[in-house]
Backbone:
C-alpha cells in the first residue's frame, strides 16, 4: 500500500510543474488580484446564466416580442404589459388561487411539522429510524411525486380512492380527486403537504433542540406545568425557526409549478391555475413573450422582496 | 426567633435605551412595504389594491436594498 503523499512534496511538485512564465506572472500579482482570478469563473457563470437572462427579460417586458416570430419587427410598448397584467381580472384570479394554496399549505405544514418535531424531540426508542422515514418524501423529485400521486388519485385503480372508500364507505370510483372542482385544490395541497411537511419538521426540530435543558429544569423547580412550559418556553423559543420555515415555504409555494402542472395542469377549468401556470400559458401556448416577461418580472420582484425578509429573519436566528 | 439582617437593595442600573439605527428603520419600513405589497397582490377584495401591489412591493424591495447599505 502506498503511503499518503506529503503535502510539502505535493506543493514542490506543483511548483516545479508550473511553467516558469506563468509562475512569474502569478507571483507578481497582488492578493486581491489572485482572489479575483479565482472567483472570476464563478462570476462569469453567474452573469451568463442569471444576470444576463434577467436583464434580457426586463428589456423584453417593454416590447411586443414573440418567441415564435423572432423576425417580426419589434415594437416598444413601454409599460403597457405591466398595466395590462395589473388590471387583468383573470391574472388577479390566478393570484388569489396562488394565495389560497400558499395559506392552506403553510397552515397544514407548519402545524403538522411542529407537532412531528415535538414528538421526535422526545427521543423515544427508534426515533432516529422514524426521523429518516418521515424525511423520505422530501428527498424525492417533485416530478416523481407528481407522477405517482397521479396514479394514486386514479378513480378506478388508485390506492388513495380505495383507502378513502375503506375508511368512509364511499365507493372508490364515485369521486375524482383531480377531476372535481371542489377536490382538486385539496388534492394538490395534500401532495405538497405530504412532501414538504418533513422539511418544516426539520427546521422546527433544530429550533426545539436549540432550547437549553436548564430552562426546563428551572421551570420544573418553579413547579410550572408541562402545558405552561410549552406556552412560555418551547413555543416562544422555537418561534424564530417556525417563522423561518413559514417564510421559506411561502416563497416556495408562491412559485409552485411542477406539482400543479403534473397533477392537474391548472384544471379543471381554472380552479388550480396558479400564477406560474398562467405564466407558462402566456409564454409557451400563446407565445406572448414580452407580456409573459413582464409577468415574470412582477413575480420575480415579489419573490425577491420576500427573499430579502427571509434573509433578514435568517440573520436574526443566527444572531440568537 | 431569628432576625434576618435587612440588606438594602442595590439600585437597579438604568437600562440603556435602545435607539433604532437608520438601517433598522429602513429595513423595518421595507419589510412592512413588501408585506403590504404581497397582501395587496393576493387579496380578493379590491382590483385597485391589486393594481398598486407591484409598485408597493418594488418600492419596499428598493428601500430594503438601499437601507441594508446604511451603517448599523
Residues:
Amino acid at each position: 500500500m502506498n503511503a499518503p503523499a506529503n503535502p510539502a512534496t505535493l506543493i514542490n511538485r506543483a511548483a516545479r510543474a508550473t511553467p516558469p512564465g506563468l509562475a512569474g506572472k502569478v507571483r507578481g500579482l497582488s492578493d486581491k488580484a489572485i482572489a479575483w482570478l479565482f472567483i472570476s469563473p464563478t462570476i462569469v457563470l453567474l452573469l451568463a446564466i442569471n444576470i444576463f437572462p434577467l436583464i434580457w427579460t426586463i428589456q423584453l417586458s417593454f416590447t411586443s416580442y414573440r418567441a415564435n416570430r423572432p423576425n417580426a419587427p419589434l415594437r416598444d410598448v413601454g409599460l403597457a404589459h405591466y398595466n395590462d397584467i395589473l388590471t387583468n381580472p383573470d391574472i388577479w384570479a390566478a393570484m388569489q388561487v396562488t394565495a389560497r394554496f400558499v395559506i392552506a399549505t403553510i397552515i397544514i405544514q407548519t402545524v403538522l411539522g411542529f407537532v412531528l418535531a415535538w414528538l421526535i424531540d422526545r427521543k423515544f426508542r427508534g426515533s432516529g429510524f422514524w426521523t429518516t422515514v418521515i424525511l423520505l418524501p422530501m428527498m424525492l423529485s417533485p416530478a416523481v411525486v407528481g407522477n405517482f400521486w397521479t396514479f394514486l388519485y386514479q378513480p378506478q385503480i388508485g390506492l388513495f380512492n380505495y383507502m378513502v372508500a375503506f375508511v368512509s364507505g364511499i365507493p372508490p370510483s364515485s369521486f375524482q380527486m383531480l377531476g372535481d372542482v371542489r377536490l382538486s385544490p385539496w388534492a394538490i395541497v395534500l401532495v405538497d403537504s405530504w412532501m414538504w411537511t418533513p422539511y418544516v419538521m426539520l427546521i422546527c426540530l433544530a429550533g426545539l433542540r436549540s432550547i437549553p435543558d436548564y430552562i426546563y429544569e428551572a421551570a420544573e423547580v418553579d413547579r410550572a406545568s408541562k402545558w405552561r412550559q410549552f406556552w412560555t418556553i418551547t413555543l416562544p423559543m422555537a418561534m424564530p425557526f417556525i417563522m423561518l420555515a413559514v417564510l421559506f415555504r411561502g416563497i416556495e409555494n408562491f412559485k409552485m409549478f411542477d406539482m400543479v402542472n403534473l397533477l392537474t395542469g391548472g384544471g379543471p377549468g381554472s380552479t388550480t391555475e396558479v400564477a406560474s401556470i398562467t405564466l407558462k400559458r402566456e409564454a409557451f401556448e400563446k407565445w406572448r413573450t414580452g407580456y409573459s416577461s413582464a409577468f415574470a418580472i412582477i413575480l420575480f420582484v415579489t419573490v425577491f422582496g420576500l427573499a430579502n425578509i427571509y434573509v433578514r429573519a435568517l440573520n436574526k436566528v443566527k444572531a440568537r | 426567633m431569628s432576625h434576618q439582617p435587612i440588606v438594602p437593595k442595590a439600585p437597579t442600573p438604568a437600562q440603556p435605551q435602545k435607539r433604532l439605527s437608520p438601517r433598522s428603520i429602513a429595513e423595518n419600513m421595507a419589510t412592512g412595504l413588501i408585506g403590504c405589497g404581497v397582501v395587496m397582490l393576493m387579496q380578493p377584495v379590491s382590483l385597485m389594491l391589486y393594481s398598486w401591489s407591484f409598485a408597493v412591493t418594488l418600492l419596499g424591495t428598493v428601500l430594503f436594498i438601499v437601507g441594508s447599505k446604511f451603517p448599523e
Remarks:
- Chain A has one domain: 80-319.
- Residues 218 and 224 of chain A are 9 Å apart (CA to CA).
- Residues 80-319 of chain A form a domain with the MetI-like fold fold (CATH 1.10.3720.10).
- Chain A has a mean pLDDT of 88.
